[in-house]
Design brief:
Length: about 575
C-alpha cells in the first residue's frame, strides 16, 4: 500500500469516526500541513464545513456553534502559530464548559525541534485548558482501529463530566494530498466505535428529604439561578419556587427572564435592590440555594460576602467543581439542576405557597422595575437601549451579549417577557475578544440572532464579520458607541485625569459604516429613539448582516446609572415608611 493510500484511509477513518460520534460542524482555517484533514472533512457530505482565514475568529465561531447547539464543534488549522491563535477561545470554552474538538496539524517528529519552517512545540500547548490531549501517531497500515478509537475518545472527552475543549495534535508527512478515488473509503478496514451513553447525576431520596425539610423549616430562603443554558430548567425551578414560596433571583443568562413559564416568583431587579445599604441588611436570608454559576451582579457577590458567616449556602452544580468565587463557606450539591428541582418539588403538595418574605421581594422588585423603566429625557442611553431592544426582538430568537457594560445593562434593564428569547454570553473568562465571531457561530446554528456589544468589543473582532459576508448569515448587531471603555468610569482610575483617557478610556474614533459595508452589511447610525426603533425594525427584515450603531455620551454613563440606583433606593425608602 502506498503512503498516499495509507494516509487517505487513515484520515477517512479518523474523520468518519468523528462524524459517527456526533460531530456536525468543523471550522477550517486554510494551510498546507492541514491539507489531509481539510480535504477529508470537505469531501464528506454529513458534516458542515466553514472556512475562516483568521484562526482566532474561527475558534470563537466554533465556540458559538457549539454553545448554541450544545454539542461539539471541531477546529482545523495548519502547524505553527496558527494553532496559537486558538488559545483565547479555548480558555473561554474551558471555563464556560463548551465542547470543542481542536485538531492541529503538525510536522512529523523528525522535523520537530530542528528549525524547520512553520514548526513550534505543539504537544500539550494549551496546558490545563484542555480536558484531554493526544499526539496522534503518524499514518501507518494497521492503525485504522487505533485512529478511530482516538477520534471517538476526542468527542467523548469533550462532552463527559463538565464539557470542554480537547486537543488532538496530528503529525503529517508529505505528500499531503489524499486520493479519494480509492475503493472502500469510509467503510473498510475498521468498525465504527459505538457512541458512549452519558447520564447526569442526581440527588437521592434522603437528600431530597433534607431540602424539603429545609424549605419548610420556617427560615427565609432564596433560590438563585446563575448563567445556565438548559432551557428545561425554567419550568422546574419555578415549580419548586411556587411550591416552597421562595423568591428566585434570576441572572439574565439563567434563561428564566424570557419565556412562557410562571414568573410570579422571579426577581429580575435584585442587582438594583442590593445596591441599597439599608436593604442589603433588611433582605438578609437564612439560606441560599444557587443553581448554576455565580450571577453577573457584583452587588449580589458583595452581598453574599457580607452575610456569608450567617447564611447557609448551597450550590447545585451538575459536575464536581468549585464555582464559588465569594469565598464563603459553601455546601456543594453535585446534581443536575433540573433533576434536583424535580426531586425536591415532587415531595411538596402545595400549589402556590405565599408568605411575607416572598411578598416583600415581589413588591420591592415591582417598585425597582417601575423606576428602572422610567425615562426622564430623550437622550440615548445604554439602559433604555436594552429595553427597546427587548421590545423589538422577534420571538424564538437569541440575544448574545458582549462583556463589560452591555451584560451589566442587560442585567439591569432586560425585564421578564413572555417572548422566547435565549440570552447567551461568553462569561467563562469574561473577555471582550471574539464576541462578534461567537455570536455569528450562534447565528450559524439557525436561530435569529441579535448581538449587543460596545464599540471596543466590536472593533476587537471585526475580522469575525467575514463569515457573515461569505455565508450571508442573518444577524442584527447593536453597537453601543460611547467612543471608549465605559466600564472603567466606575473604577478609581477615573480620577487620574492625566492618564485615564489614554490608558483606560481609549477612544478610537472609528467610522464603522465603511467597515460594515466592506463586509457587505447595512449600517445605520442612530441619534434618537425614533431612528433606533425604525433601524431595529428594518434590521429584522434583512437577510444578512445589519449593524445599528447607537451613539451615546460616555460622560452621561455613570450619572445615569447612579441616578437610577438612587431612585430605586428612594422608592424603597418611601414604601418602607408608608
Amino acid at each position: 500500500m502506498s503512503y498516499t493510500e495509507t494516509l487517505t484511509k487513515y484520515m477517512t477513518h479518523f474523520v468518519g469516526q468523528l462524524l459517527y460520534s456526533g460531530l456536525e460542524d468543523v471550522v477550517i482555517s486554510p494551510g498546507s500541513r492541514s491539507t489531509p484533514l481539510a480535504m477529508t472533512f470537505s469531501e464528506h457530505s454529513d458534516v458542515k464545513h466553514w472556512v475562516h482565514v483568521d484562526e482566532r475568529s474561527a475558534a470563537f465561531f466554533a465556540l458559538g456553534l457549539a454553545k448554541e447547539k450544545q454539542r461539539p464543534a471541531a477546529l482545523v488549522c495548519t502547524s505553527g502559530t496558527a494553532a496559537a491563535n486558538y488559545y483565547p477561545a479555548i480558555v473561554e470554552a474551558y471555563y464556560s464548559r463548551v465542547p470543542l474538538v481542536v485538531l492541529t496539524a503538525d510536522r512529523p517528529h523528525e522535523l520537530r525541534d530542528v528549525g524547520a519552517p512553520q514548526s513550534i512545540e505543539q504537544t500539550e500547548m494549551y496546558g490545563g485548558y484542555v480536558k484531554w490531549f493526544h499526539d496522534l501517531a503518524l499514518a501507518e497500515e494497521g492503525l485504522m482501529s487505533y485512529v478511530r478509537k482516538q477520534a471517538a475518545r476526542a468527542v467523548e472527552e469533550s462532552q463527559s463530566n463538565h464539557p470542554g475543549p480537547v486537543h488532538v495534535n496530528i503529525p503529517l508527512r508529505e505528500p499531503l494530498v489524499p486520493d479519494f478515488k480509492l475503493e472502500g473509503l469510509w467503510k473498510e478496514g475498521a468498525k465504527p466505535i459505538p457512541k458512549t451513553f452519558h447520564g447526569l447525576p442526581q440527588i437521592s431520596k434522603q437528600q431530597a428529604a433534607f431540602f424539603e425539610e429545609l424549605l419548610f423549616s420556617g427560615k427565609k430562603g432564596l433560590l438563585v439561578c446563575g448563567p445556565h443554558t438548559d432551557l428545561d430548567l425554567a419550568s422546574d425551578i419555578t415549580n419548586l419556587a411556587a411550591r416552597a414560596g421562595l423568591p428566585i433571583l434570576a441572572d439574565p443568562l439563567s434563561q428564566l427572564r424570557a419565556g412562557e413559564h410562571d414568573k410570579r416568583n422571579i426577581i429580575e431587579n435584585y442587582d438594583a435592590l442590593l445596591k441599597s445599604d439599608k436593604w442589603k441588611v433588611n433582605l438578609q436570608p437564612d439560606f441560599i440555594i444557587r443553581l448554576g454559576a455565580m450571577p453577573v451582579s457584583k452587588a449580589y457577590l458583595q452581598w453574599v460576602q457580607k452575610h456569608g458567616a450567617s447564611v447557609d449556602h448551597y450550590v447545585v452544580d451538575t459536575y464536581a467543581s468549585y464555582r464559588e468565587p465569594s469565598g464563603v463557606t459553601t455546601q456543594f450539591v453535585w446534581s443536575d439542576p433540573v433533576k434536583f428541582c424535580k426531586k425536591v418539588y415532587e415531595r411538596i403538595d402545595e400549589d402556590h405557597l405565599e408568605n411575607e418574605w416572598l411578598r416583600k421581594w415581589q413588591k420591592m422588585n415591582t417598585l425597582a422595575k417601575g423606576h428602572m423603566l422610567t425615562e426622564h429625557d430623550e437622550r440615548l442611553n445604554e439602559g433604555h437601549a436594552v429595553v427597546r431592544l427587548s421590545e423589538a426582538m422577534p420571538d424564538e430568537s437569541v440575544l448574545f451579549v458582549g462583556n463589560s457594560m452591555p451584560i451589566r445593562d442587560v442585567d439591569s434593564f432586560f425585564m421578564s417577557t413572555p417572548k422566547r428569547i435565549k440570552i447567551l454570553a461568553n462569561r467563562g473568562a469574561n473577555g471582550i475578544d471574539g464576541v462578534v465571531s461567537t455570536a455569528l457561530g450562534v447565528a450559524a446554528a439557525g436561530q435569529p440572532t441579535t448581538l449587543l456589544l460596545g464599540d471596543l468589543s466590536f472593533f476587537h473582532d471585526l475580522n469575525g464579520l467575514l463569515l457573515a459576508k461569505m455565508h450571508s448569515l442573518p444577524i442584527t448587531i447593536v453597537v453601543i458607541n460611547n467612543d471608549g471603555g465605559g466600564i472603567f468610569s466606575y473604577l478609581p482610575q477615573v480620577d487620574q485625569r492625566d492618564h485615564f483617557e489614554e490608558l483606560f478610556g481609549t477612544p478610537i474614533g472609528i467610522d464603522f459604516k465603511a467597515v460594515v459595508e466592506m463586509y457587505g452589511g447595512t449600517h445605520n447610525r442612530v441619534h434618537t429613539w425614533a431612528s433606533y426603533k425604525r433601524s431595529l425594525e428594518e434590521s429584522y427584515q434583512e437577510n444578512g448582516l445589519s449593524v445599528v450603531e447607537v451613539m451615546t455620551n460616555r460622560e452621561d454613563h455613570v450619572p445615569f446609572h447612579k441616578a437610577k440606583w438612587q431612585g430605586v433606593a428612594e422608592a424603597l425608602e418611601n414604601w418602607d415608611e408608608a
